């Protein structure tokens, strides 16, 4: 069933205390001497998402994570949702098996307050403003970059809670390389993936094919039939260096999905479990990076995204919704003794096409819009001082203009410790359905949702060990709520989220341990209640050990209870807290063959992320990867 965005006290004390106690596993600082960039993998990690330019992760004045391809393979995650669940500041709520409606809440903000990118390009649906995670296959991903906290002054609308950027796989090793992965698991699950890359001289080519299918399980806890899922996709990327002067990158990706779900309604508004949907998404992108001189780079980018959904409810055609987004951008980066200055402009056009018994394309009073943004940012590092500031102006032809900004400052207390603070504003644009719904409930006079966020952070990096602490407060105004008998959207709600995030990790030669814990108070300022489907405490612990050709790992995820709406009575209720243990192992049988297996939800814990909807029970999966 498709759910509207919802705003999620009690506790899962036992499970959360268990996770918290595991903090004792994290080793103390091993020495007072600092770890230099050359000896730390974390400090060497380059990320591009926070400010749209390559930066060492330790130089970014924001709370960030980078999940590499090696970590994705080690965790054996089946989806982006599985990979991100319970990481610092991130909660997910999925109403059933894979393919079901999924919401992602970053730092307690709404599910459409996190900007989802693929290779730096937006992929959220233009109609409802949500990213559909079934279109984001991990098989094609090289790394995932996460930035917690607002980034509207860099990217424009929608980045109130943060940004998640999926960077797809490309050739990195000279020569031709290929790998094929075959996996099978519980619930009739089968996964196949083939990856090929070629790097010759200045040209890089990569291709990925993947297919996932599963019989699934019943989405509703009152249902009896399984809700299956199937997805097939392909990605192709081409890159070429024109000497030392320019780099061209081209990409195309297409994914098609087929899924079942529960609680849909036919034309007589009778509930049914016989619900079926199909979807597709195609993304085209191209960029050209030109080195105009040693201190001046120019980047031109274009992208086109088209997605389409067609639902069959209770055996009848329920209609089709398709949206298209075209984007173009120009950015100049100047590298000077006074820091790095970036200046850019981008333009985005969105259109909507819909038909079916419930609505027609003509039902939308307006079915398109465009927005233009101009932005600039400055990054300075002088001895122990670090400064980042940014400013952006956005003009939308439907809801007007917005000015956003952000400033961050950090001071190196020692060579190993840093203390900093930041303050930023952000906004969320109303989506096309909010503005021009064909049901007679659209509101073209809606304003953008606006926010401010203040943050303090401290981080420590020692040999093989790191520790970070972030405290933040986000105030959001003009939240869109659906009121009246026709559920018309209006700007009425306000929320405030206060929180603390703790991250710690140990990376030894054989043992790695990573802990992420979040305490937050996501409050509806109009009612004083906890925002729905958001917990006040949640945590995740990952531990892995490598022994010769073997590796062994475990993950413990825990969450306190959450406020929710009863799926049957539509009254306020709570979903219980939970703790889940996952195990995994792999064996490099020979240089070109690797076996892997995992056991998720080892103790078959029953819990719900959305009231009335099931989650995965004990799950077993194994597979083999061939390298060529």
From TrEMBL:
<dbReference type="InterPro" id="IPR039426">
    <property type="entry name" value="TonB-dep_rcpt-like"/>
</dbReference>
<keyword id="KW-0812">Transmembrane</keyword>
<dbReference type="InterPro" id="IPR012910">
    <property type="entry name" value="Plug_dom"/>
</dbReference>
<dbReference type="InterPro" id="IPR000531">
    <property type="entry name" value="Beta-barrel_TonB"/>
</dbReference>
<keyword id="KW-0732">Signal</keyword>
<feature type="signal peptide">
    <location>
        <begin position="1"/>
        <end position="31"/>
    </location>
</feature>
<keyword id="KW-0406">Ion transport</keyword>
<keyword id="KW-0998">Cell outer membrane</keyword>
<dbReference type="GO" id="GO:0009279">
    <property type="term" value="C:cell outer membrane"/>
</dbReference>
<feature type="domain" description="TonB-dependent receptor-like beta-barrel">
    <location>
        <begin position="185"/>
        <end position="602"/>
    </location>
</feature>
<dbReference type="Pfam" id="PF07715">
    <property type="entry name" value="Plug"/>
</dbReference>
<keyword id="KW-0675">Receptor</keyword>
<protein>
    <submittedName>
        <fullName>TonB-dependent receptor</fullName>
    </submittedName>
</protein>
<dbReference type="GO" id="GO:0006811">
    <property type="term" value="P:monoatomic ion transport"/>
</dbReference>
<dbReference type="GO" id="GO:0015889">
    <property type="term" value="P:cobalamin transport"/>
</dbReference>
<comment type="similarity">
    <text>Belongs to the TonB-dependent receptor family.</text>
</comment>
<dbReference type="InterPro" id="IPR036942">
    <property type="entry name" value="Beta-barrel_TonB_sf"/>
</dbReference>
<dbReference type="InterPro" id="IPR010916">
    <property type="entry name" value="TonB_box_CS"/>
</dbReference>
<dbReference type="Pfam" id="PF00593">
    <property type="entry name" value="TonB_dep_Rec_b-barrel"/>
</dbReference>
<feature type="domain" description="TonB-dependent receptor plug">
    <location>
        <begin position="58"/>
        <end position="163"/>
    </location>
</feature>
<feature type="short sequence motif" description="TonB box">
    <location>
        <begin position="45"/>
        <end position="51"/>
    </location>
</feature>
<keyword id="KW-0798">TonB box</keyword>
<dbReference type="InterPro" id="IPR037066">
    <property type="entry name" value="Plug_dom_sf"/>
</dbReference>
<keyword id="KW-0472">Membrane</keyword>
<keyword id="KW-0813">Transport</keyword>
<feature type="region of interest" description="Disordered">
    <location>
        <begin position="210"/>
        <end position="229"/>
    </location>
</feature>
<keyword id="KW-1134">Transmembrane beta strand</keyword>
């Amino acid at each position: 069933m498709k759910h509207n965005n919802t705003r999620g006290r009690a506790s899962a004390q036992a499970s959360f205390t268990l996770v918290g106690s595991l903090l004792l596993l994290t080793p103390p600082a091993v020495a007072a001497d600092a770890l230099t960039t050359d000896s730390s993998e974390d400090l060497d990690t380059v990320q591009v998402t926070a400010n749209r330019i390559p930066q060492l992760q330790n130089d970014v004045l924001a709370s960030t994570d980078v999940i590499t391809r090696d970590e994705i393979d080690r965790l054996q995650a089946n989806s982006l949702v599985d990979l991100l669940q319970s990481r610092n500041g991130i909660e997910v709520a999925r109403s059933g098996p894979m393919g079901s409606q999924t919401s992602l809440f970053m730092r307690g903000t709404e599910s459409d307050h996190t900007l989802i990118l693929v290779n730096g390009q937006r992929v959220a649906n233009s109609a409802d403003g949500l990213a559909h995670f079934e279109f984001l296959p991990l098989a094609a991903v090289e790394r995932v970059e996460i930035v917690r906290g607002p980034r509207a002054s860099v990217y424009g609308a929608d980045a109130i809670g943060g940004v998640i950027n999926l960077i797809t796989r490309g050739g990195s090793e000279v020569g031709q390389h290929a790998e094929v992965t075959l996996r099978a698991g519980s619930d009739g699950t089968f996964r196949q993936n083939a990856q090929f890359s070629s790097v010759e001289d200045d040209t890089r080519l990569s291709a990925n094919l993947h297919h996932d299918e599963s019989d699934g399980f019943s989405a509703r806890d009152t249902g009896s039939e399984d809700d299956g899922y199937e997805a097939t996709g392909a990605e192709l990327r081409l890159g070429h260096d024109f000497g030392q002067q320019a780099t061209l990158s081209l990409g195309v990706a297409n994914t098609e999905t087929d899924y079942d779900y529960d609680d849909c309604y036919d034309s007589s508004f009778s509930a049914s479990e016989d619900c079926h949907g199909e979807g597709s998404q195609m993304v085209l992108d191209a960029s050209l990076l030109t080195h105009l001189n040693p201190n001046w780079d120019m980047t031109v980018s274009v992208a086109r995204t088209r997605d389409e959904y067609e639902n069959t409810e209770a055996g009848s055609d329920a209609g089709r919704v398709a949206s298209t987004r075209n984007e173009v951008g120009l950015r100049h980066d100047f590298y000077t003794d006074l820091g790095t200055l970036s200046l850019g402009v981008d333009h985005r056009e969105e259109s909507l096409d819909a038909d079916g018994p419930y609505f027609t394309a003509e039902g939308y009073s307006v079915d398109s819009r465009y927005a233009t943004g101009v932005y600039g940012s400055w990054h300075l590092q002088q001895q122990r001082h670090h400064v980042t500031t940014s400013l952006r102006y956005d003009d939308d032809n439907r809801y007007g203009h917005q000015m956003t900004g952000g400033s961050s400052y950090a001071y190196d207390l020692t060579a190993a410790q840093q203390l900093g603070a930041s303050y930023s504003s952000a906004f969320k644009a109303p989506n096309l359905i909010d503005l021009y719904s064909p049901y007679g409930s659209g509101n073209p006079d809606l304003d953008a949702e606006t926010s401010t966020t203040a943050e303090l952070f401290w981080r420590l990096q020692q040999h093989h060990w790191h520790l970070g602490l972030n405290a933040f407060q986000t105030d959001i105004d003009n939240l869109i709520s659906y009121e009246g008998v026709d559920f018309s959207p209006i700007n009425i709600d306000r929320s405030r989220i206060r929180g603390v995030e703790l991250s710690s990790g140990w990376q030894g030669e054989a043992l790695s341990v990573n802990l992420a814990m979040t305490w937050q108070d996501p409050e509806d300022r109009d009612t004083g209640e906890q925002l729905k489907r958001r917990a006040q405490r949640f945590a995740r612990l990952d531990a892995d050990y490598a022994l010769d050709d073997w590796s062994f790992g475990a993950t413990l995820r825990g969450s306190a209870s959450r406020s929710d709406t009863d799926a049957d009575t539509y009254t306020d209720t709570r979903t219980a807290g939970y703790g889940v243990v996952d195990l995994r192992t792999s064996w490099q049988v020979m240089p070109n063959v690797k076996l892997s297996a995992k056991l998720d939800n080892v103790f078959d814990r029953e819990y719900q992320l959305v009231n009335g909807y099931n989650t995965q029970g004990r799950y077993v999966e194994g597979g083999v990867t061939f390298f060529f």
